């Protein structure tokens, strides 16, 4: 969120999240900023004016993890409300996150930009993580892992 004193946007802020799959694992970052600072979530962020959904997802993935991937499809959208207290009285709190499924291409995850950490997690590890509750991480991660597995099976057929 910006620390300037401009008025809040008129409507929700659109953003992307990148669900990157590699060897049956999903890439998550530990968030540096609110909402849910310190918790695990997907790499992602705001879509800039004139930027496509896919371009924003690629940019945010690279900025936050250093990983490159092939964007396969948009597969979900969710509302996120920042309900954490703010020192800025006009801090905006409604985001629409557009989930993009990625296939990993290259790079080892390294925390960058808005991330404190970046790592791969298996399906079984998701339940034990301190995930960002407002981002519905576990549900979206399982959905992405299932989609990737279905696409891989269809590719073999």
What does this protein structure show overall?
There is one protein chain. The chain is 21% helix and 36% strand. The protein has helices spanning 53-65, 137-156; strands at 13-22, 25-31, 40-41, 44-46, 68-81, 94-106, 115-122. Strands 1, 2, 3, 4, 5, 6 and 7 form a 7-stranded mixed beta sheet that branches. Strand 1 (13-22) and strand 2 (25-31) form a beta hairpin. The radius of gyration is 15 Å and the shape is globular. The protein starts with 12 loop residues before the first strand and ends with a helix. The model has no long low-confidence stretch (mean pLDDT 89).
Helical fraction equals 10-25%
Structural class: alpha+beta
How many β strands by DSSP? 7
Q: Helix and strand string, N-terminal first?
A: EEEEHEEEH
Mean residue pLDDT: 89
What general outline do the C-alpha atoms trace?
Answer: globular
Alpha-carbon distance between the two ends: 46 Å
Helix run count = 2
The stretches of 5 or more residues where confidence is low (pLDDT under 50) are none
Radius of gyration: 15 Å
Please indicate the percent range of residues in DSSP E strands (runs of 2 or more). 35-45%
Largest sheet: 7 strands, mixed
